[in-house]
């Protein structure tokens, strides 16, 4: 499929080592939303829904906050209506996923609970929702993010001698293993080969370096999983995901950050399990 050929070839190739001007995720949002139709449009909205989730938390904590992420799908007025459970004029609040409505309705009861982190709660539900996507390739991207987040949480808890089950709240075999296993790899090595790589990342003591390594891991995963259909909806979502990573790292020291990030990615590519010719430069 070459449905998104024009959009993807119209953008500069995304390279960690290149600081040339490029479109940010906020600038790309309207372009891709306008281009996507049908089930693809739903996948694009799901990608940007993560920012709706975090905006909703900000609004629930402080209805007057001015700090809303413009990358979300929903406006301030729509978020207010969602919080009030109202059907808005010109849009249908019922189109918002049930988990987001339930989160808004139940927030006040959970907010005062010791150790409750609203951002973690809503993102856990967001990934549970997106991992059920009808597009298996896109669902795998969300599953990767969920698995990485769960694994890192479990490793941090274990190394601080905290009870892992107090911090890992997801459903499924992976989370069950994280909560119960005492093995170094939580007994997941055979079913989830990337566990060994994540354990190495978790060993990094520099928090910035750890973030770079994690994002580099995601970047190479995207390269390996979008080679064969470079212009379909999966490639479009991957382009958005890479752009989001670059936006985040553009806030760091540009030259040093690019050089280090490039080194990490090249090292990961050298260890990749797919032939080098199949890894996009």
- Count the E strands: 0
User: How large a portion of the residues is in β-strands, by DSSP E?
Assistant: under 5%
Derived from helix and strand composition plus strand pairing, the structural class reads mainly alpha
Tell me about the largest β-sheet. Answer: none
Large-scale geometry: globular
User: Taking Cα atoms only, what radius of gyration do you get, to the nearest Å?
Assistant: 19 Å
Order of helices and strands: HHHHHHHHHHHH
The percentage helix is: 55-70%
Distance between the termini: 21 Å
Q: Name the average pLDDT.
A: 82
How many separate helices?
12
The low-confidence parts are 271-281
What's the short version?
With 281 residues, the protein is mostly helical.
How would you describe the overall organization of this protein?
With 281 residues, the chain is mainly alpha-helical. The protein contains 12 helices and no strands. Helix 3 packs across helix 4, helix 5 packs antiparallel against helix 6 and helix 7 packs parallel to helix 8. The C terminus is likely disordered.
